[in-house]
Amino acid sequence: MLAKVLSSAVIGIDATIVEVEVDISQGLPSFSTVGLPEGAVRESKERVKASIKNSGYHFPSDRITVNLAPADIKKEGSAFDLPMAVGILAATGIIPTASYTHCLVLGELSLDGLIRPIRGALPIAIMAKEMGLRGLYLPRENKVEAAVVAGIDVYPVESLGQLVEALSGFRKISPVQMEAREVLRKSVPDEDFSDVQGQENVKRAMEIAAAGGHNMIMIGPPGAGKTMLARRLHTILPELSFEEALETSKVYSVMGLMPKGFGLVSTRPFRCPHHTISDAGLIGGGQNPKPGEVSLAHNGVLFLDELPEFKKNVLEVLRQPMEEGSVTISRASSSVTYPSNFMLVAAMNPCPCGFLGDPKRECTCTYLQIQRYRSKISGPLMDRIDIHMEVPPVQFKDLKRKETGKGSSEISKRVKKARVIQSRRFRRTRIYSNANMNTRQIRKFCVVDAESNDLLERAMDKFGLSARAHSRILKIARTIADLEGCSEIESTHVAEAIQYRSLDRRMLR
Q1: Taking a C-beta distance cutoff of 8 angstroms, is the pair 345, 216 a contact?
Q2: pTM, entire model
Q3: Over 50: is that where the pLDDT of 34 sits?
Q4: 2-178, which class in CATH?
Q5: Any idea where the domains of the chain sit in the sequence?
C-alpha cells in the first residue's frame, strides 16, 4: 500500500516541493523516515502515531516507511507531521487518494490530534501559486499569512480529525481569501519627533537619512538624546510598499516572527541588538543557516547603540551586507542567500568616559585610551556610513521650552515627497532610494556644475576622503535636492552634504 502527499520545505526564504511517500508493507511493526530528515522530522513518528490513535483512527501495526523526496535536500522542522499522518491514513484506505492531489499539506501535530502553527507559510504559499497547485491545507494560525497570496485556495484546519473528514467528503472547509493590502494594517507609533527638545541639526540629518535611505552615525556625550532620536526614525520613514512588505514578511515568516493576525509585516522593522551579539547572530548562520539581525532589519532600520562596545569582528562582517544588500551564508552542505537592505543607524560616545568636548564636564580619558576606543571602528566601516553627526548636550533652555519641535507627521510629509521623486527616477529598477544607486546611476542622476565640482575637489584634498566617500557625498546631495524639490544639484546641496562626511576623519585620526 503506497500513498503520496505533497508538502514543502523552506530553504533560505524560498520554498520547494517535497513529496511525502508512505509505504505500508507486511513485517514487524516499525516506522522509519528516510530522505535526510533532521531531528524534529525523525521525532515526528511518535507525534504522528499518538495523534492518529487519539483522533480515533487505527494505526497500522505493520512496517511503515516514509520517504521525503527529493532525498538530497535536508528536511527540518515539524511541518511534515500532518502530511505523514495523511499519507498513512490514505495508504490504509481511510482517506481517498484523489481528495488531496494538487494540494500541499503542512502542519505540526500535537499528541491529541490538534494542529499547531508552522514557519514559512508565506513563501510556501507563493511557491504553491507559482507551481500551479490548487490550494494548501495548513494550520488555522497561519491562514492570514498564506491568504495574502491571491490566486490560491488556503484551507485552514484545526485538527487531524477535521482534515480527515474534509478529505473524505463528510465536512466542508471554506477557503480563506483576502486581498494583500487588507492585511497591511497600519499601527500608530507611540514615539514622535516632537518629544525631542532641541537638536534641530540632528533632526535635519535624520530627515535626510530617511529621505534617501542613508546610513547614519551619531556621536555625542551620554544623555544627549542619541537613542531617543534613533528610536523615532521609523516614524518618519515612508510606508512599506507591497513588494517591500512581501520581501520583509518572507524573512519573518521563516523565523516564525510574523505579527499575530497580520498577513504581512505592515511597518518598517526596527532592530536593536545588544552589543554582546555574535557575528552569526548579526549576519545569520548556524548548522542550518538562519537569518540574522541584518536580514530581520530588511527594508527597515538596524540600530547599533554604543557602537564601540560591539566586538570588532562582529562590526567588520557588516561591510559586505551594507554594500550589496544581501547576505550569502555558505556551509559544506548548503548555501543560502538572505536579503539585507537596511538603514544602519549607530550611536557612540566620543571617548570611553563620554565627555570629550563637553563644555561643562571634564574628560578624564588619556590620549591612548581615546585612540584605542575609536580604533574599534575601522576606516572602511566608517566609509560606508553616509552621514556622520555630532550630537551636542541639550541646553536647559531647550528642555524647558514650552513649544514643541517639528513633529513626525510634518517631517514625514517631506520625506514621502522626496521618496516619490526617487520612485519615479528608479521606476524600472529594483532600487527604492538614492542610497542604493550604483556607479552608473550616480553618473546619470548626480551631475554637478563647475562650482560644486571645485567644492568637492577641495573637500577631498582637505579631509583625505576616499572615492567611496565622494560617491556618498553625491548621493546625499541628490537627496537634499529631492527634499527641496530641485531637479539639479546645486552648490549649497553639495556643501551641506560635505559637512556630513568630515566628522569621521576628525574623529578617527
Answers
A1: yes
A2: 0.89
A3: yes
A4: alpha beta
A5: 2-178, 193-427, 437-509
